[in-house]
Each structure stands twice: as C-alpha cells, then as structure tokens.
Automatic annotation (TrEMBL):
Biased composition (Low complexity): 10-20
SUPFAM superfamilies in UniProt: PLP-dependent transferases (SSF53383)
Native species: Gordonia phthalatica
InterPro entries registered for this protein in UniProt: Aminotrans_V_dom, PyrdxlP-dep_Trfase, PyrdxlP-dep_Trfase_major, PyrdxlP-dep_Trfase_small
Disordered, as annotated region: 1-25
Keywords, ordered alphabetically: Pyridoxal phosphate
Domain Aminotransferase class V: 74-190
Name of the protein: Aminotransferase class V domain-containing protein
Entry superkingdom: Bacteria
Necessary cofactors: pyridoxal 5'-phosphate
Spans through the membrane: none
Tagged with keyword Phosphoprotein: no
Length: 305
C-alpha cells in the first residue's frame, strides 16, 4: 500500500488478529477474508494476469469487461456511462444484445478511488445468465469485501495492497470453473501463510474504523483544496457512492509533471501521475495523518500562489 509522505504503516496501532480468522489452512483464511462461501475454491498464483487469462479462457461463452479493467484477449468491452446507474444499464444492454458467460469489473478505480456497487453489477449479470468476477486488488486494504453478501461469483485480489512480503495473487469463487486454473503452479506455503497473516492483521483493525478515518481525511482534503484556486478533484462518475484509498486532482495551469516535481522536490510529498490522463493521484492508508493532509494542501497552495 502506498502512503502519502511514505509514512510507515507501523505508526498505526496493530491489534492481534481475530481468532476466527486464524483457524484453518492459509487458503481457508484467505477465503474467509473475502467473505467466501464454505464451498468456494481458492486458486493461488504468482501473477494476476495469467490467473485471469486462464480463468476467462475456461468460460463456456463470451467474456464482457467493464472498461477500467486491464482487459482480456478477445473480451467484449462495455464503456462506462457518466453515472453508475447508466453504467449498470449499459452492461445490461450489452448482455441483452449478445449473451455472455462472464462479466469482469474492477471493484475500485486505482486512479480516482471510486468504488463500484459490486452487488448491483452482480444482479445485472445474473439476470442475463452470466457470472461475475470482481477484481478487488485496490479495495481489499480499504474496505471489507464479501463474496457472499455482495452475491458475486468470484473475487480476485493480491498481496500487493496488504503490505505482505511475498507476491501472491488469489482467485476465490465457485469451483466448477476453476479446475483448469487450479492445475497451475502455486506460490509456496510460507508466502501464502504470510499473506493470510497480513490479511488478518488488517481485519483486526476493523474496516468500519478504517473507512471512517479515510473518509475524514478525504473530507479534509476537499475543504483544504476548496480554498486553493484551480484545484479540481477528479472522478469518473457523477454519482460515486464511496471512494477508497485514492484522492485524484488536477491543478489548472500546471502540468502533472510540474505538480509532481514541485510536491516531491520542494515539499517531500510523494504523489503519482496517472497515465495517460495526467491526473495527480494521492494514496491514503494506515499511516496517513491529518498533518500529512495539511502538508499536501500547503504545498499545492504554494504552487498556485
């Protein structure tokens, strides 16, 4: 997880992992981490691209991908509308026009942080006989993910956002389509156990508490930037319900390269420039503080003064 000003996650209090999560094998613990059903299969891999490609190749008919996901060879693409309601309608229209077996969506944008209501997209897919896989890589460290309560078929995530030392990619869901994928080589047991332990440590902090804290930081950024001329928060939808882990903005009259260099060189604030849009992307996480937020606002104000 990248953090504003690169503060270490250890600054946040870490409580012991919840006992209920500790029981069972590492794959079982990862299944429970994403609210999997008791009979859901768990497939582990060293790369998410190969994992998704093999999985999608085994689907019995077409695959439809909501734009924003990296995509899959041969998949049909649905472009999002200006609203979430319109995007759900666009997906349904595509499935009515040409049936498909599998729908792929990203749980949250890695540029703007906007979170999609996965349950609504799952209902739309199921109404037209398709299953759905939700790529939750950028969400699992910020919000609780639940296969069962969302009514989705599969979820994909990785250790990259969990501050684990090993690179492990996880696909959890209905086992009948996962047999060809499960035959691939898996990461070692030590790596999988370490990822499960990282997931449990995150659960012990409480996702509700993490969500409220993150929302408060974003609201403070909103108030601070509202007083800085030319700063605009960026979003994909007119009606986002939630944002997680990322705050995206631009500064009118200044290129993204100029903003990034100013913040990093003169103020020691680490941000990213999203390609190809040029939007400035600020990541927030466990180690991000109110002082970090105020320092960012001060630095941007200095640029525009």
């Amino acid at each position: 997880m990248s953090l504003l000003l690169e503060r270490a996650p250890s600054r946040a209090p870490v409580r012991p992992a919840a006992p209920a999560m500790e029981r069972g094998s590492a794959p079982d613990r990862l299944r429970r981490f994403v609210g999997g059903r008791s009979d859901d299969a768990v497939v582990l891999s060293r790369t998410s691209a190969d994992l998704m490609r093999l999985f999608a190749a085994g689907a019995p008919a077409d695959v439809v991908v909501l734009a924003g996901h990296p995509g899959l060879p041969g998949a049909r693409i649905v472009e999002p509308a200006a609203t979430i309601d319109g995007t759900v309608a666009a997906l349904e229209a595509e499935l009515v026009a040409r049936p498909a077996a599998l729908v792929v969506i990203t749980a949250s944008s890695d540029v703007t942080g906007e979170v999609l209501p996965a349950g609504r997209f799952a209902s739309a897919a199921h109404r037209h006989g398709a299953r759905i896989v939700v790529d939750a890589e950028h969400l699992v460290a910020h919000r609780a993910v639940s296969i069962a309560s969302w009514g989705i078929d599969y979820v994909l995530f990785s250790s990259r956002e969990l501050d684990a030392l090993f690179d492990v990619h996880v696909l959890v869901g209905r086992g009948d389509w996962l047999a060809p994928v499960a035959a691939r080589s898996e990461p070692g047991g030590v790596a999988v156990g370490a990822v499960a332990a990282s997931a449990e440590a995150l659960v012990s902090l409480g996702f509700e508490e993490l969500g409220y804290r993150e929302q408060a930081l974003h609201q403070r950024l909103d108030r601070g930037f509202a007083a800085v001329p030319g700063v605009r928060r960026m979003q994909n939808f007119d009606d986002p319900l939630d944002r997680a882990g990322v705050y995206a903005f631009i500064v009118d009259g200044h290129s993204a390269v100029e903003v990034v260099e100013h913040l990093s060189v003169r103020h020691g604030v680490g941000v990213c420039r999203a390609q190809p849009s040029g939007v400035i992307r600020v990541s927030t996480g466990l180690g991000t503080t109110v002082d970090d937020v105020d320092r960012l606002v001060f630095a941007v104000r200095a640029l525009t003064s």
